[in-house]
Design brief:
By secondary structure, this protein is α/β, with parallel strands linked by helices. The chain is built from five helices and four strands; from the N terminus they run βαβααβαβα. The longest helix has 26 residues, at about 140-165.
Amino acid sequence: MTTAPAPRTPGRYRVAVVCLGNICRSPMADVVLNASVADAGLDDVVTVVSAGTGGWHAGDGMDPRAARLLSDEGYDASRHRAQQVQATWLEEYDLVLAMDRENLRDLRELGAADPERLRLFRDFDPESPGDVPDPYYGGDAGFRDVLDMVERTSSALVDQIAPLVSS
């Protein structure tokens, strides 16, 4: 498992989670990671956003299957609006986390990025690193699998970020 890099600004931490269209995986990670951050009492010092490498869904809400699953599990998926990642994020965020290797490659093509800060989301998965599979063309079980990966990875990531922002 990877170690989270130090924050660019002491006492603050910024995380961006990126997938292809920002309607399934990255918004699920955004919602869950934000909930984990809030549960840890860090929501005043940790910022989490999500985006897609493509902009065709910009302004759209989350995929209804993802939103329904998150709502069923007690998360608030209602505020999400898809957006496209900006090249400036590679320098502004402490961590830019791609949901799979294809998105990681696309992010690298946006410009120079510190490899310590541009990682795969599941590099922080305590069970097994790798890609978060895209559930878009599958059934409900794929969304459940993604949620399981996102929950355990988010928990592990918050455990690493907490000491970096605590004074």
